[in-house]
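REQUEST FORM: STRUCTURE PREDICTION
Request ID: SP-0412
Submitted by: Lab K.M.
Chain count: 1
Length (residues): 282
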Amino acid sequence: MIRRLLALLGAMMLLALPVLAEDDEEEFSLSDLVELEELPVYGNAPWVFPVALEDIDPELIRLANKESLLPDDYVPDDLVLVEKNPDKGGIRWAVTPSDGKLKGQYLRAECAAALCAMNAAMREVDGFRDMYLKSAYRSYQKQKTMYHNRLANNHGRDDGWVSMEGASDHQTGLGCDVVPKNWKDKSMNEKMMKEPECIWMAEHCHEYGFIIRYPDDKQEITGIHTEPWHLRYVGPEVAAYIMGNGLCLEEFHQQLRAAIDTFLAEGGDPAAVQPLLDASGQ
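STATUS: Completed
RESULT:
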């Protein structure tokens, strides 16, 4: 029991959760210990991270950035063509892209269903009936072409607007650019943050399992400029935690890794968390 209590306290510190001040004399009650005892145990240690282990799908939290590159042959095996007719529960396309054998807007099945559900909800809001899917899945080769075209047009300088091949969130099949009608034919920039539709998405996207992948206050961490249009599907429970705590996906992985380290140090089952480590490139 004492070891489990120490594990919980250690995880709380690692996750930057509130702790008692030195002059506080509050003690743990029997109910605290009972609650701790009821935590799910894997191997010889409880899982004390704020998001339950069964609610974290390794595939949905897969990281793609300059430090965690996806391989050139990484292609999700459940890509589906996103329905583009809103009257049939879909979302309009701003363009019809071609990417190898794929023509149209593709996303992983769970992500596509969630996006269409969110768009249906937005259509019930006055003035939000015309949202457009501007970019969804992009292959490694497609991203490579886009990145090097950007470099060629920018005197060889990476300006943070286009990710290099392997580092693109779009390659996961879980990242998508969603814009209001008056932006569907324009170059996107941070001014879109002021659009009512984007404000709504920032406030409600987690209800459908999405996060704002590149928040305006996390550019030094993500290495990408503010993109209020770029949604990333991670699942409802993870999305609620990330958005509710003002994190970016990289910070979530940092906190998750700290919790995993504590879990393993306390005798947790390595097999229970290895898929999560793989998802972050560990």
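NOTES: Confidence is low (pLDDT under 50) at residues 1-35.
Reviewed by: T.R.
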